C-alpha cells in the first residue's frame, strides 16, 4: 500500500469516528502504529530497500507517522469534549418547566415574637444585653433583694446545681450585671431562657423572658406607664389600653401587674380574656432602692423602672395557642401555620 493511500484511508476512518466511539479510535491506532501496524510494517521493510533509497523512504514514512499521530490526538480531545458536553446536557435543569417548589422554612412563632419585640425596643433606644443561664445565688436572688427565706428559693421552684450555683429563674440577673459595669443613664432589655420547676398547659420548666430596665434622673411611674402603653399598642394594636394593678416584687417598689384590654373582644368579655375584658401580660415597677445600692448607684440621685414579660405567654396569646408544649414539640403541621 502506498503512503498516499494509507494517509487517505486513515483520515477517512478518523472522520467517521463520532462521539462514544473511543474504541474505534483505539482500534485505528493499533491498525496504524501497533506492533503489526501498517506504518510499523513499512518501517521494518526499509531493510529490503537499496541503501540509497532508505533515507528518503524513512523520512516519508516518519513524516506520515507524525502527522497521523497528531490527527489521532486531536480526535481523542474532540471525543473527550463531546463526552463531557453530552454528560452536562443530560444533567441540566430546564428552569422553564413548571415544577412544584420545595417548602421554604420560616422563623418559629416564638422567635418571631422575640424579634418583633427586640426590634421595637432597639428602635426606642434600648440596648440588648445577654447574661449567663447558669447563675450564682447572688445575681439571681441576693442582689435583687430576695431574702434567704423567700419562697422562690425553695427547691420546688428553682433548679439548684449546688448551694451557690443554679439555673437562672429570671433574666433580671442580667440587669444587675449590667448596672455593675455601666452607670446611668441606662436603657436595656435582656431576652433569654429561664428555668423553673413548673409544668402544666401554660407553664414549662424552660421558658423565655424579656426584662427591661431604665435608670436615669427623674424617672417616674408615669414614664413606665407610657413605655408599656407604647409597647402594648405596638404588639396588640392601636386600640389597646393598659391598666396597672398593685402587686409585690422584692426588686421593685412600688410594684404592679400590667393588664391589656382584650384584643379579641375589646373589653366586652370572651373566652380569651375569661370574660373579664383584660389579659395579664407582665409585671413591672420602680426599681427598689436596695437594688440600686447593691449595684453602686446612688438611689437619691437616680431612679429607675423595670418590667418583665414572658415571651411564651405573649406568643400563646397572639397565636391563640392553648398549650405551651406545642411551642416545643416541633410538629411540622403546627409550625407550617406560622409561615
Per-chain topology:
Elements: H1 3-16, H2 22-33, H3 38-44, H4 54-91, H5 109-123, E1 127-128, E2 134-136, H6 137-140, E3 165-167, H7 172-181, E4 186-195, E5 206-216, H8 221-236, E6 242-249, E7 252-261, E8 278-287, H9 289-294, E9 303-310, H10 311-319, H11 332-336
Parallel strand pairs: 1-4
Antiparallel strand pairs: 2-3, 4-5, 5-9, 6-7, 7-8, 8-9
Helix pairs in contact: 1-4, 2-4, 5-10
Describe this structure in words.
The protein is of the alpha+beta class. It has 2 domains: 3-91; 109-336, 2-Layer Sandwich (BirA Bifunctional Protein, domain 2). 40% of the residues lie in helices and 19% in strands. It has 11 helices and 9 strands. It has helices at residues 3-16, 22-33, 38-44, 54-91, 109-123, 137-140, 172-181, 221-236, 289-294, 311-319, 332-336, and strands spanning 127-128, 134-136, 165-167, 186-195, 206-216, 242-249, 252-261, 278-287, 303-310. The strands form 2 sheets. The protein has a 7-stranded mixed sheet, with helices on both faces. Helix 1 runs parallel beside helix 4 (54-91) and helix 2 runs antiparallel to helix 4 (54-91). 27% of the residues are buried.
What is the structure about, briefly put?
With 339 residues, the chain is of the alpha+beta class. The chain has helices at residues 3-16, 22-33, 38-44, 54-91, 109-123, 137-140, 172-181, 221-236, 289-294, 311-319, 332-336; strands at 127-128, 134-136, 165-167, 186-195, 206-216, 242-249, 252-261, 278-287, 303-310. 40% of the residues lie in helices and 19% in strands.
